Amino acid sequence: MTVASLILVFSIHVTGLMAMTKPACTWSAAKQNVGVEGQDIAVVLYANQQSCQLACEENQGCLSVTFSPKTKNCYLNKVRFGDDLLTDMKNYVYLEKDCPPCQPPKPRKSCTWSKGIQGKAIADNNVVTLDDTTLESCQQICNQLYYCKSIDWKPLIGKCSLNAEDDTDGILKTFKDFEWYKKECVESDVCSADNH
C-alpha cells in the first residue's frame, strides 16, 4: 500500500455527523484473495468488514475497499477495477460500492454522549488513537465518523481512542485510569439536497 495510506482516517471527507450500524449503499459480492494496490486514499485500522464498508461510504472519493480479515486493515480505494486489473493478494477481500445519490443520510439531531464510566474501556477495537488532546476534541472527532461508536479516554495524559464498537457489540473491560463514553445519535431516512 502507498505511503499516503498512512494518513489514516483523517484524510476521510466528512459528509455529516452520522451514526449507522449497517452499510447504506449496495455492495458487490466479496472477491477473495485479490485487491487494489497503490490506489488507496486512506486506511482504517482494527476494522471488520462492516466498519470497512461504512468508512468507504463516509468518503465520497472511495469507490472500493481492500480488506484483510487477518490484519483487520481496511484500505479505501479511489478506483474500481475489473477482474483483469485486480492484484493477487492472499488473505484479502475486495468489494465495490454503489451508493444512491443521497446516501448516506444526515441525522435529524446531533449526537449526544453518555456519562463516562470510570475504569472501563473497549479492548482491541481502537480505530484511531490520539495523544495530547481533550475529551471534547475526542468526542468531536468521533461525532464526525459515523462508524465511531464510543471512545476510551485517559485523562491523565490526554489519550483518546476511537472505537468502532460500543457495549452492544464489544466487551467493556477493566482498564485503570481510563473512562469510557458511548455516542448516541438519531438517524434520518430523509435525504438532504446537499448530499446529491
From TrEMBL:
Entry keywords, A to Z: Disulfide bond, Repeat, Signal
PROSITE patterns listed in its UniProt record: PAN
Please give the Pfam families that the UniProt record associates with this protein: PAN_1
GO cellular component terms, semicolon-separated: extracellular region
What Gene3D superfamilies does the entry give? Hepatocyte Growth Factor
Q: Which InterPro entries match?
A: Apple (IPR000177), Pan_app (IPR003609)
Domain of life assignment: Eukaryota
Its GO biological process terms? Answer: proteolysis
This protein is called Apple domain-containing protein
Write the signal peptide boundaries.
1-19
Question: What are the residue boundaries of the Apple domain, all occurrences included?
Answer: 25-99, 111-185
